[in-house]
Amino acid sequence: MEMASSPRTVEEIFKDYSARRNAVVRALADDVDQFYGLCDPEKENLCLYGHPNETWEVTLPAEEVPPELPEPALGINFARDGMNRKDWLSLVAVHSDSWLLSVAFYFGARLNRSERKRLFSLINDLPTVFEVVTERKPVKEKPSVDSGSKSRGSTKRSGDGLVKSTPKLPPDESFEEDDDEHSETLCGSCGGNYNADEFWIGCDICEKWFHGKCVKITPAKAENIKQYKCPSCSLKRGRQ
């Protein structure tokens, strides 16, 4: 409908998402008076579209059924005069965030688990349209309670069941390396592949990864470990 070819890679989908998001933000912030005027409640069901060329449009929904892409919220104009202006704009912003995500993951349907995770991380690093419109600042995550010491050997729990050392990487490279590392990780004890449903822990000496069950470390024990040494490294240190 809007593009000669659909975006396929994580980078292409994120670029498409960013462009559409910028367009919607422009409509609800920079061009808000024009947008407000176009959303006449006397007109038919109207939608707010953000296009990949960073332009926005208030128009009727697509006629084809089912549509080529997920459609934005229908009839945003009907509630305009029945609500406080700021509340109405906030409502449109929330629906726009939902639509932007649905389009991005529609394009990302064929991505694998690791690629979907990376796509969401890129999207999540940007403020939502709702946050921009309401001028809310994204809440910064608090440091984890199990962050340990300030040395390289400190460990922290990741969201997918791993306990890992804090890497010395630039902020913009850490996630990609972590993602690739997880997808190809083998247990240093049994040789099994990484599974997000299982608890894993990384050795701070040899940097190998292990199933918690293979090295008899539970998540509860890991919380109190500042620097983990696998059985092999512990033996080597003991002989020296």
What can you see in these coordinates?
- This protein is an alpha+beta fold.
- Helix content is 39%, strand content 9%.
- It contains eight helices and six strands; from the N terminus they run ααββαααββαββαα.
- The strands form two sheets. A four-stranded mixed β-sheet has the order 3-4-5-6, with no helix packed on it. Strands 1-2 form a two-stranded antiparallel ribbon.
- Strand 3 (155-157) and strand 4 (162-165) form a beta hairpin.
- Helix 1 packs across helix 2 (32-38) and helix 1 runs antiparallel to helix 3 (85-107).
- The longest helix is centred in the middle third of the chain and has 23 residues, at 85-107.
- The protein starts with 9 loop residues before the first helix and ends with a helix.
H/E series, N to C? HHEEHHHEEHEEHH
Sheet with the most strands, sense and barrel status: 4 strands, mixed
Beta strand %: 5-15%
Query: What portion of residues is helical?
Result: 25-40%
Largest sheet strand order: 3-4-5-6
Radius of gyration: 24 Å
Sequence stretches where pLDDT stays below 50 over 5 or more residues? 142-161, 164-176
Number of strands: 6
Distance between the termini: 68 Å
The number of helical elements comes to: 8
Overall outline: elongated
Name the structural class: alpha+beta
Average pLDDT metric: 81
